[in-house]
Each structure stands twice: as C-alpha cells, then as structure tokens.
Amino acid sequence: MSTASRMAPLDRKQYDLFGAAPAQDARPRPCASDTGRRFIVGNAHEIVIGATRLEDWLKQSDQHTPFVVAHLLEQQDWLAFEGRYAGTGRAPYSPRQMMGLILYGVMQGLHSLRELERLARLDLGCMWVTGGITPDHANIGRFIVLHEDSLTQEFFESLTRTILKASGSSSARLAGDGTVIEAACSRYNLLKQEAVRARAQAATAALERAPDDRAAKQAQQRSSQCQTIFDARLAARQHSGKGTESLRISGTEPEAMVQRLKRGQGYGASYKPSVLANENRIITALALDASSETRVIASMLDQSARTTGAQAEEVLLDAGYFDDEVIEATLARDVSLLCPDGQWPAVPRDDGLFHKSAFDYDEQTDSYRCPAGQILLLEAKSRKTLNTREHRVYGASTCGDCHLRAKCTKAAQGRRIKRYPEDEQREALRVVMQHPQARRIFSQRKAIVEPVFSSLRGQQGLNRFRRRGLAAVRREFALHVMAHNLSRAVALQRALFAFLWATLLVLRKFGSTLRARPLVRLPRFNRSHLGAS
Predict the structure, then answer these.
(1) Global pTM?
(2) For residue 395, what are the CA distances in angstroms to 353, 365, 440?
(3) Helix, strand, or coil (residue 182)
(4) Any idea where the Transposase DDE domain is (predicted)?
(5) pLDDT reading at 10 higher than 50
(6) Residue 31: φ, ψ to 5°
(7) Which of 129, 137, 225, 314 could form a disulfide with 113 if both were Cys (CB 3.0 to 4.6 A apart)?
C-alpha cells in the first residue's frame, strides 16, 4: 500500500475538522429526563495534525494541561446539564465539551465569547478538551445562561471534590480572603440622590408617552431598580448614623457598590468576591457580595463542608474578619478560628487615645485593668433600645493624677469602657492569638490564599468583571474559580512526580537517620474558651 493511500483517511478527517460542519456526528447520549436526547459529541482521538494524531502531537510537545482538564471533566456527572435540554429539535453540543471549552479558555485568560469561539477553532490543546466541536459565540453564551445555577454550586462542588481527590489535598486548614474588583461600568458616571430620582421620573414619563415601546419599558425598569437600591442604601446609612452626602450609585450597574478599589485606583462601582482555599491553594468555597466580606463566611464554611465532605478544623482570616458575625459562625460549626484583632496588639485610636483592647477584663472581679494598672469598676448597666445595644459601663475615679491620662482620655470624669455581650468571644479569641503556635500557624495565611487572587488577576485577567448584574457577575467569578482549580490540578500533578522522585532519593540516602518529631497541637478556639479569657 502506498503512502498516499495510507494517509488518505487521516487527511479527510483533518479537512473535516476545519470545514463548515463539525467533524463528528451527533449520537445518542444518556439524559436525566430519559427523552433520548442527542448531542453533538466530538472525538479528540480522530483529530490529526498532518500525519500525527493530536494525542501524540500534544504528548511530544509536552502539553499536559489538555489531558488533565479532559480527564477531570470526564469524571463529572453531566445528567443534570443534559436534562435541561428539550427532547426535540436540533441536537445541541455536548455539555461536557462545552464546559471544557469555557474553562480551558478562562485558564488562558480569555473572557469574551468571540475569543472562546476562536479558541475552539485554532488552539490544539482546546481541540483535545472539546473533541473538536466549534460552537459560535451565541451558543456559548446561551449555554452559560442555561446552566448558571449549577456553575456556582453543584458543578463547582463536584469538580472541586474531584480535584481534591486527584491531588490528595487536605482541607482541614483553610485560609480565607476577599478583594475588590471593578464592575463593568464607568466610574465617572455615578449618580447622586437627585440624579437618581430625576432619571426615574424621566423614564416613567417616556413610558407613559410610548407604552408599547420596548426600549422605554427596559429603561423604566432599570431606573426603577436603581432608585429602589439607592433608597435602601440611603436608609441603611441613615439608620447607622453615617453621612449620606457621598452616597452614589451606577445607573448601569446599580447592584454594584461604590467603594475604594485596589492598587490606588480611587473609587468605583465594584463587587467583593471571597474565597476559602486549602494549603495547596485549591479553592473549596466561593462567594460574591456587593460590599461585605464578613457576611459570606457562614455560607462559605457550609459550602466547603459540602465540597470536601467534612467541616474544616481551622480557618485563617486576616484582621478585617475580626467580627462578631464571623466569630459566631465559626463557633456554631466548631471551626477553630485564627484571626487577629485589627486593634491588637493595643494601638492608639484615630484620636491618639488607647483603644479598648488595651484594657484587660477580669471575669472574676467583673472589672477592667487599664494600661497604668488602675481598676475600672462597674458603674452602670444599659438595656437594649432602638438606637443602642445592651451594654455595661466601667470607670475609675483615679484618672486625675494618672501619668498616662493624656494618652487615655480627654473626659473630665475619666476613662469609661463599654462592655457588650459579644466582647467575651472577642477576648477569648485574643487569648488564643497570643499563643506562639497560633501566631506561627497564622503566618501561613498569606502564602495560602493571597497567591490565589494574584493568579486570578495576573494569569486569568480578572481585573474587572465583564458581565453586568449580581447574578451574571457570580457566574463569571465561579468560572474563574473553577479554571483556577484546574490550573492548580495541573501544577500539582506536575510537581507530584518530581516530589516523589526527590523523596525517594532522600530516603535512600538519609532514611536511617530520620526521626519523627513530636507534634505540638494548638488548643482549638471553641466555646470552651468562653469565660476563661
């Protein structure tokens, strides 16, 4: 048989791949609804590059990423995805290969649907992951919207669970952090209260003049949503006693919060995504809120427990999470929290006076000891009202001649300390954080979680969200997180062989002299510490 006749079948496959139609035919696939739905399923083993099959070409080029991504995606259950399609009509693309295209593209730092469409046609690694399917940008966008509910929860948890198992990663110790990422709107077109109301009135008037105008209806809905959100934030500020003159909102992205951006970029409409990551920097839980990092801790701990199959033993958070809601969330789940107080060790307040954390509370005598050694006794008790919380007031009558008075108080009657019910938990956490072992473990937090956001920004280009609306932004962030976890799976697999080989060499040479060191266990911060601070 001649060379030309032997290569003819391969050449035909290659021409079909770059033709107008996919190289594969639709074939039956199992469907959750048992409708016999057919999907367009690619076959990467049939793709060739010249005279070399794609699989061999990638191996010869030392391209491991496509194989790892494809293998991990093959282990997922796709019945829930397939069940969302109707049983009749034109066959859609396989959900597994569509998801592979999206995640593989995000791993390369691609964000737009047209970039993903181009990647599917030109990138050889992507062809292996997708089997050679070539969906257009509209199909990719519809796929993301159709399956948005699974992306942030069920599928994320399933994929992460597979990655953790494949990498042998432990999630007993987690580190959490959040960041601020700008929304998809201009920071120079923000609206104040008068502009919001004027915009809503103008949109309502335009709709009354043309009630059948679709564009007028959409404009009225957007302006109404903008005013509703603005009024809610205005009421919240007024209730907390904060000023309202600086309150602004984006007319095109009202769900975003105007807040200070990272890296000295000033203020802009933005969101706060948060993650929990293990020691291998695999993200086990994600959340996205308009402005709060502490509000989402409880839900992330629950998601991490579902993903890993067990609640984390320890979570490391920076001083920004020293919050009553965070402390209560970890105590309720028996998770040991390591989190320093933002004012501890004791530092002066903004007015230069000693912070409350500089005063030591003694539960037995129900009193405080100030930095000068004087005792502050209980003077009054206050019940909860509409404007104040329940608290107790402690003071001393010996502040007049104190040599630290200038650094402690400016009040004529001396320094007063208010003690709230949650102060017991705060003080217990401060006691735990004084432990040298706790400080050593907490020092690992930066190395665990901060490189995660560096990777999301630097490698995947998540410096600004491209979608609008809280739901769409959550979808976008979930895709970035899953792509990051796949990248970590690739990196860990590559490092595994080198680590095993180095370990074997060390054991051969020094195995007889190695001795196990005793393990020093840190007392867990839980409810047993309350009342013992």
Answers:
(1) 0.81
(2) 16, 14, 36
(3) strand
(4) 370-488
(5) no
(6) -130, 140
(7) 137
Name the one residue in this structure whose structure tokens are 């095993």: 500
Are β-strands 173-178 and 314-316 bridged in parallel, bridged antiparallel, or unpaired? parallel
Chain segment 326-383, per-residue pLDDT in tens = 999 999 999 999 999 865 444 455 556 888 878 888 888 888 988 888 888 888 888 8
Extract the tokens encoding 223: 């302006």
What is the per-residue pLDDT across 77-127, written as a single tens digit (0 to 9) for each?
998 898 888 877 888 999 999 999 999 999 999 989 999 999 999 999 999
Q: Is 13 exposed, middle or buried (0-12, 13-18, 19+ CB in 10 A)?
A: middle
Helices 113-122 and 95-107, packing angle to 10 deg: 100
- Contact assessment for residue 229 and residue 220, using Cβ atoms and an 8 Å cutoff: no
Q: Are 110 and 460 in contact (CB under 8 A)?
A: no
Nearest alpha carbon to residue 486 among 185, 15, 194, 71: 71
Q: Where are the alpha helices (DSSP H) in 285-422?
A: 297-308, 324-332, 405-408
Q: For 223-273, what is each residue's pLDDT tens digit?
A: 998 999 988 988 888 877 777 788 899 988 999 999 988 777 788 899 999
Q: Give just the sign of the alpha carbon dihedral 452, 458, 463, 469.
A: negative
pLDDT over 90 percentage in the chain:
44
484 residue type, one letter: H
DSSP letter at 35 equals: S
Question: Which 3-state string (H, E, C) describes 241-296?
Answer: CCCCCCCCEECCCCCCEEEECCCCCCEEEEEEEEEEECCCCCEEEEEEECCCCCCC
ω into residue 340 within 30 of 0, thus cis?
no
Token duo for residue 436: 């040298």
**Furthest C-alpha separation in the chain:** 108
What single string gives the DSSP state of each residue in 39-55? EE---GGG-EETTEEHH
- The CA distance from 171 to 304, in Å, is 9
pLDDT for residue 500: 65
pLDDT tens per residue, range 188-209: 888 898 898 999 999 889 888 8
